[in-house]
Specification:
InterPro entries: 6-hairpin_glycosidase_sf, 6hp_glycosidase-like_sf. There is one protein chain. The protein is globular, with a radius of gyration of 21 Å. It has two domains: 2-297, Glycosyltransferase (Alpha/alpha barrel), CATH 1.50.10; 302-388, Maltose phosphorylase, domain 3 (Sandwich). It starts with a strand and ends with a strand. The longest helix has 21 residues, at 169-189. It has helices at 4-16, 20-32, 68-84, 88-91, 93-109, 146-160, 169-189, 214-222, 229-244, 256-262, 266-279, 285-297, and strands spanning 2-3, 45-46, 57-59, 62-63, 144-145, 191-192, 197-198, 201-203, 206-208, 302-303, 309-312, 321-329, 332-339, 343-350, 354-359, 365-370, 375-379, 384-388. The chain contains twelve helices and 18 strands.
Length: 390
């Protein structure tokens, strides 16, 4: 079977491995399964012949559904559009419809607290719908969850960053505005000053704290937290919770490198990358995300919001190096090698070339145009050397 949550988390690794057609096929399948009868949820899982997985689907009002999943699929559709320059990830009819109904109709139908944050009724029953990915959630059962609002915010933010013909500008502007409002709501209403961490979620009676797995680490994974003392305290809380009450399933750990890398806790992220590699686990999320953690997470390699721009930032400790090659980004194929945080080499081996933007410690940015066939070295000292020209 293939699952919506797993697909969302594995798509980047799959792209790096050349599985774009498979990513698009599965994404279209989930998108096409969302309809009014299912209150705009996509189905949770399919057999590989395209039929709903019987273990997770009994009828249109009795199937597994968890609020973060549709928003993650929307966010990852945008992500894959940026990595592939294939506008089908946004404009294929099933996906285009799914994107709009998820951000509008789905939220309107699932707003239990009237705050604009999608959630559920708080039954704790995954077949009736839950607000969180945490399937071992305990009472009080959340009606809105931190992994839900973080995923909803990330989807709005991703759509708001799209320009050009792939998305209507009015819809993009509306998503930017919604992302801003959700971010402000999270900042003003979800922080628990006495507990020194963000709430895991809310019931009708108010906020719920404590270490609650996905609801604790997703605000960091998605980046909805500001970079400030609050996020520092929340990440300390996350690290402590992982020591005292670690998750029982290996796939849960696959989110941790992303959470810590996003907020510059590179040593902690590398610890979990090594932990996952050492597990030798064959659960699909482990190998797929490992590819992404190493090739993209540690290198900071990612397409920019503007087409033809590629970013890097080393997350390596001093004295270590990493090199990745043959990475398709948009219409070009690129490679990058970091020597600690001291110097970086960037090359383009196919396509029209890119504008390379390298961020260094302290926030300084080096920007260089790199045509096809060229390799350029930039240093933390501001130096730029062309090593090879076409």
């Amino acid at each position: 079977m293939f699952y919506s949550r797993d697909l969302a988390h594995q798509m980047l690794g799959a792209h790096l491995l050349g599985l774009d057609a498979e990513n698009l096929s599965m994404l279209r399948h989930f998108a096409g399964s969302s309809n009014g009868e299912r209150v705009w949820y996509p189905l949770w899982a399919f057999e590989f012949d395209g039929t709903p997985a019987a273990i997770d689907y009994h009828s249109d009002d009795d199937f597994v559904r968890e609020v973060p999943a549709p928003f993650e699929l929307v966010e990852k559709a945008v992500e894959q559009y940026r990595w592939t320059a294939d506008d089908r990830f946004l404009l294929a009819p099933e996906i285009a419809s799914f994107v709009r109904t998820t951000m509008t109709s789905f939220v309107e139908a699932h707003d239990p607290l009237g705050t604009g944050v999608a959630g559920e009724r708080g039954t704790g029953d995954i077949f009736q719908g839950t607000a969180t990915y945490n399937e071992v959630d305990r009472p009080p059962y959340l009606q809105v969850a931190a992994d839900g609002i973080a995923s909803q915010w990330a989807a709005h933010r991703a759509l708001g960053s799209v320009t050009g013909s792939a998305l209507d500008e009015d819809f993009a502007a509306w998503n930017r505005e919604r992302a801003g409002r959700l971010g402000e709501h999270f900042s003003s209403s979800w922080w628990l000053p006495d507990d020194r961490h963000y709430a895991a979620g809310f019931t009708a009676d108010g906020p719920v704290g404590g270490f609650r797995l996905e609801s604790t680490w997703f605000p960091a994974v998605k980046g909805i937290m500001g970079v400030d003392r609050r996020s520092d305290a929340h990440l300390d809380f996350l690290r402590s919770g992982l020591e005292t009450a670690p998750p029982s399933n290996i796939e849960a750990f696959t989110y941790l490198p992303e959470a810590f890398l996003r907020y510059g806790r590179d040593d902690e992220a590398l610890r979990w990358i090594r932990f996952l590699a050492g597990s030798r686990a064959d659960y699909p999320e482990v190998p797929f995300t490992h590819v992404a953690h190493v090739a993209v997470g540690l290198t900071g390699l990612e397409p920019g919001a503007k087409e033809g721009v590629v970013h890097t930032r080393s997350h390596l400790p001093a004295g270590e190096w990493i090199e990745v090659a043959d990475v398709p980004v948009g219409a070009s194929v690129v490679g990058v090698r970091h020597e600690g945080r001291r110097s970086t080499e960037f090359q383009v081996t196919a396509g029209p070339g890119v504008t390379w933007s390298s961020t260094w410690d302290g926030g300084r940015v080096t920007t260089v145009d790199v045509p096809n066939g060229s390799r350029v070295r930039a240093g933390a000292d501001g130096s730029v050397v062309v090593l090879r020209e076409q």
